[in-house]
UniProtKB/TrEMBL annotation:
Pfam families: Lactamase_B. It comes from Embleya hyalina. SUPFAM superfamilies: Metallo-hydrolase/oxidoreductase. This is MBL fold metallo-hydrolase. Keywords: Hydrolase.
Length: 311
């Protein structure tokens, strides 16, 4: 099912779900392109926010929502990775220390605000500008909101080169960033299918009972297994396609997605195959490939129509 086949006309407004005492998920329906989830941890002296949103308006609404729950300021903003739906709003957190993996900073500085009008036209981005994190780590860092202890951990290249999770071990709550798309197709074009499998297995070992995914509804650890299954499907499809001498777009057009056909944004299979082909051909995990060419093939897979974005 392509993005355009989903009914976005009655999209529900964002909502807050308390996942532990003082820990909240901010869920933005319907979780498709550029419509991400965020979160926030409330302590007596300050708030830790987990990601911003794609547009100025959505990020301001998120900030207003936090303010309805506490008078405490947002002192810390964690970026789970560099993609703009999670970081375009960084500039609005003017008094917060922005924390992320060191490669998140590098990617934001290199990419800025990506030019995507030809792929996702007509989005009201507002006055977004690229602001990178300025407190970075290589493997992990621990942040606190009152008594809430949040371990920010990087396990390797997966969805991107720089994914981090936020792990509340005592509460068994995991903010996964885009390691999990609940109800959506995983997207690995800027990451690594092989790395994604390894990272998912490490994340599963944490033993979290409640997951706040980067997109979609709050869920349980079964979504980790589902993502593992999808990625194994992509890798096997890529191997067969390369052996047959077919390009990623041709393989995608011939592939029966089976149980994964019901996921939103199914055109991501094309980008995922581009990355899998590159890795099978010897490109390092999350190494440089022609991302815009792959996005162009995704548009072609979508019948030549730009991809839908309702952010």
């Amino acid at each position: 099912m392509s993005t355009s086949q989903h009914d976005h006309g009655r999209m529900d407004p964002p909502r807050v779900q308390e996942v532990a005492d003082g820990a909240y998920a901010y869920i933005q329906p319907d979780g498709t392109w550029w419509i991400n989830n965020t979160g926030f941890l409330v302590g007596p002296e300050g708030v830790v926010a987990i990601d911003g949103c794609a547009t100025e308006a959505r990020t301001r609404t998120f900030q207003e929502t936090i303010a309805k729950h506490t008078d405490a300021p947002v002192r810390t903003l964690i970026n789970t990775h560099h993609h703009g739906d999670h970081t375009n709003g960084n500039y609005l957190f003017e008094t917060a220390t922005i924390v992320a993996h060191e490669k998140t900073r590098t990617e934001i500085l290199n990419l800025g605000i990506m030019e995507v009008e030809s792929i996702w036209p007509g989005v009201g981005w507002g006055g977004v500008r690229a602001v990178p994190p300025f407190l970075t780590f290589t493997e992990g860092v621990t942040v606190y909101a009152g008594d809430l202890r949040a371990q920010v951990r990087h396990f390797g290249a997966a969805h991107t080169s720089n994914d981090s999770v936020v792990w509340l071990e005592e509460q068994s709550v995991l903010y996964t960033g885009d390691l999990i798309f609940n109800g959506g197709t995983p997207f690995l074009l800027m990451g690594s299918p092989a790395g994604y499998l390894e990272v998912l297995r490490k994340v599963k070992e944490l033993g979290a009972t409640t997951l706040v995914p980067g997109h979609g509804e709050v869920c349980g650890p079964d979504q980790i297994d589902y993502a593992i299954g999808y990625t194994e499907f992509v890798l096997e499809t890529a191997r067969k396609g390369r052996e047959a001498g077919l390009d990623p777009l041709s393989v995608a057009r011939e592939t029966d997605l089976g149980e994964y056909a019901a996921l939103s944004d199914s055109e991501r299979i094309v980008g995922n195959l581009h990355r899998a082909y590159a890795e099978l051909g010897g490109v390092e995990r999350a190494g440089a490939i022609d991302v815009y060419a792959a996005l162009g093939d995704m548009v072609a897979f979508n019948g030549g129509k730009p991809l839908s974005c309702y952010a």
